[in-house]
Amino acid sequence: MDRVVEMYFLPPIAIARVGGSDNPLEAFEWDTDVSTHGAHQTVIKPSVTLDVGADGSLRPYIPNVIRFKDGDQLRPAAPFFELWLRVQSSHDGEVREERATPARLAQLGASIDNLQFNVTVANCKAQRRTGSPACSYIARLEVSGTDHERKPLLAISPHTPGQEPLVYPDRPIPLGAFQVIKPAPATAMGIDLSQIRVRFTPARGEVYGPPNAIAGPSSPGQPGDIIAAAILPGAIHEIVPARNRILNPNTPWSTYIMNAPGQTDPQPCDSYDGADVGDWRSWGVVDDTCDGVISAQLVVAGARFVATARVLSGVPDYAPDRRPFASLAADLADRELPPVEVSEQTIEQTSAEIADLFARVFETAGLMNLDAVRYKAIQSNINDPPPSNYPGLPQIDKRMMTKDDKPYVDLTPILLDSDEVAQQSDGVPFLPLPYSAVAMAAHAPLTDLITLRDFLRTRKEHVQRLIRPPYGRFSQFEEAPGKIPDPSFRDSRVSRDGLHDMRMPPFMRDSDENALSLTWRDYDTLMRFIDLLAEQAATDATSGPLRKA
């Protein structure tokens, strides 16, 4: 008899997105617009979508359009997880990947009657800030492989001696739902319906608070803060709907104030309701996003197998046809995969990957108010307070990305003639967001492969200088680093390496509030690709036809 070697989920990790509609978002995929005026930009197109029936069975179909909203309610993105097996053949000993189906499990001496799923999802944001486990809220489920009813994930705070719970057991916060899909011995539209699948549906995207979270003022921002320019200072708004004022007001979360003595605040520090208002005291508000673990357990021929997947529940994607240049996939590749081979033999494949990177950079730039994030980056540097800058590095104050930021600024010098770039002057048209316009103008031509390769080849030193290096590998670090940054990599122990400047990607922040960069793997690939293009150019110059004197 064939032998099961491993059981696992595909995908091993997925991102769900909250939405208030009862209908999940249909499936779509990224494609390239090849129409006359499409400019080969990224678009989305419908893909095979799985509709779940009342009995838990599936109906595949391809939608005519992608509907992101029903009325004023966004549709949630609700991912599926498929169960797979690695099976060793009793005939040739080869290990093959196979779908886990009821029929295949029966052949292997197992049954879905013995299959069990465990789900644990939680929101620990308030716990992370207060240090109190009772300020978290957790939902747990155990579901058998034959139970196809949709199960709500109702979260409550754990019982901790001496601490009051934030979420009462009789007033839980819904964090979504879990369902074991009912297999069917059929195939439709290329989908094997006998595959064992589960689905996680996230919550509605609501906020919850204590009884006194009724109304409060908006953040007034800082003087001259263009980020808050559209917000009416002092405007009163509803904090939490009346139906959701169910939390315990007598917990540390209702008295939390960032940067208080003796506490370590997560970044970004001010991302809670009540920050920037009055004494910065928390209003005790939480939301229904979460993350968690889905596991499957099965006994086959006396051996117990466990498959595990992770699910993250976040906010809706308001620009689904724009791809981020920094992704979870890139981070995982940076962690697990070896450096990319860059050589004459792989140059076409590498060219395509670099072109895709720059296309994603252009798409990200189109989503940014560069003028706003530049201002915020300046304030972040000033509030540090920053160390002295060093020769050869970009500016870290209001001179960044102006005429005083040479040699990093060398494009559109008239537009970037001073820090008052938004003001109209002789010969310069008024632009409300000049830096944002510059970003689009600079990156749009680089979405063309031929133009991109020519730019990288002819502007080698400029590109190498302009792209911010990533944090280095441990093998690159000195035991005691100096204060002057290394030009080829960054060190988190060097203060200047964490500050924002105009190097690419400009004014974007990492999870720890430091300046963002490409992953080490992407940066290494790009730098070696630029070197290869330069070597080719030098070879072409020396081996070209002789010219007449």
Question: How far apart are the first and last residues' alpha carbons, in Å?
Answer: 81 Å
Give the overall shape.
globular
List the total number of helices: 9
Report the sheet with the most strands, covering strand number, pairing sense and barrel closure. 6 strands, antiparallel
Question: How much strand?
Answer: 15-25%
Unreliable runs? 222-231
The rounded Rg comes to 27 Å
Name the helicity range: 10-25%
Mean pLDDT: 89
> How many DSSP-defined strands?
23
**Structural class of the secondary elements?**
alpha+beta
Describe this structure in words.
By secondary structure, this protein is α+β, with helices and mostly antiparallel strands. The protein contains nine helices and 23 strands. The chain has helices at residues 102-107, 125-130, 328-336, 347-365, 370-382, 434-443, 449-458, 460-466, 520-543, and strands at residues 3-10, 13-17, 28-32, 42-46, 49-52, 58-61, 69-70, 73-74, 80-88, 95-99, 116-123, 137-144, 151-155, 173-180, 187-188, 191-192, 197-201, 207-208, 215-217, 236-238, 286-287, 290-300, 303-314. Strands 1, 9, 10, 13, 14 and 17 form a six-stranded antiparallel beta sheet that branches. It has a five-stranded mixed beta sheet with strand order 2-23-22-11-12, with no helix packed on it. The protein has a two-stranded antiparallel sheet with strand order 3-4. Helix 4 (347-365) packs antiparallel against helix 6 (434-443) and helix 7 (449-458) crosses helix 9 (520-543). The radius of gyration is 27 Å and the shape is globular. The N and C termini lie far apart (81 Å). Mean pLDDT is 89; it is low at 222-231.
